[in-house]
Design brief:
Order of helices and strands: HHH
Shape: flat
Number of strands: 0
Number of helices: 3
Helix content: 40-55%
Length: 123
Amino acid sequence: MSAAPRRRAARGSFDYRPLLRRAGILLAVSFGLSLVLMTYLFGFSDGFFGRLLGSTTVLFTLLAVTFLLVVPFVNWAAEHWFGRTWAEAPTPQPARRPRAANVPKATNAPKPARYAPRHSEND
């Protein structure tokens, strides 16, 4: 009886280790934030670990969707749909129209405050 041959990974297979590392970092951050938040808001009262688990799950989901799906997709879309030259191209400056000669130049000085007299009961 011989051992079954080992399956080799396909040449273009997906390397999941960086993704797993990022997810672990996000889980640790969300757990730390949840622990601090739940301790500050509720203290160590009844149901602490249930609230901690729920808040960790919610924070991890929000962080993971943002940093593992949305941000990479936006980067990919900007690069593939608009191209690298779009991101690296200098921004054109808007053309300025010449000022008319008869229009006075605006000053940035504030207008003087008006005096508003107060009426006293003796008047």
